[in-house]
Design a protein that fits this description.
By secondary structure, the protein is mainly alpha-helical. It has a single domain (about 15-150), classed as Arc Repressor Mutant, subunit A. It has 7 helices and 2 strands; from the N terminus they run αααααββαα. Helix 3 (about 50-60) packs across helix 6 and helix 4 (about 65-70) crosses helix 5 (about 75-90).
Length: about 150
């Protein structure tokens, strides 16, 4: 297959990656608002970025800060600060790996596990709001298309 964009058709402000970036920015801002409205979540001052970390740990897509860094393209220092804040809020804990003491795994605390379903529901509501006007088939196709794009990385 040839290139999709050409020098004549490509613009820096209206292309697939720019649109994906804008959707991500708007979605995180909307999630931030929803998290702030919920009394239980707002009491802990959980941000959208922190929710994404909690969700990734809850759904066991990553187990360490290093894996989270790769998953989200964060630098190690930023991730350490994020995990420090989640640990201070009592939502995440660090545990030495039982087989390799050099490794530190992350896991949700009981409080983190208890709060996750509520945050997941808020995230789902935001996503459903963003997807209004799309059919089930369009959303499934969009998911497949984005997975194909990710497979090219």
């Amino acid at each position: 297959m040839g290139a999709f964009y050409t020098a004549e058709t490509f613009t820096a402000t209206r292309n697939v990656f720019r649109l994906i970036s804008r959707v991500k920015t708007e979605a995180l801002a909307a999630l931030e608002e929803e998290l702030a409205k919920d009394p239980e979540v707002s009491a802990l001052e959980v941000t959208a970025a922190q929710y994404v970390i909690i969700a990734t740990l809850a759904e066991q897509e990553a187990f360490s800060s290093a894996q989270l860094c790769k998953f989200f393209s964060y630098d190690a220092g930023a991730m350490t600060r994020m995990v420090d804040r989640l640990e201070a809020k009592g939502l995440v804990r660090r545990e030495r790996d039982s087989e390799d003491r050099r490794l530190v795994n992350l896991e949700l605390t009981e409080s983190g596990k208890a709060l996750f379903p509520k945050m997941k529901l808020l995230s789902m509501q935001v996503q459903n709001r963003f997807l209004v006007g799309l059919s089930q088939q369009e959303v499934q196709q969009l998911e497949k298309t984005l997975q194909k794009i990710l497979a090219n990385t």
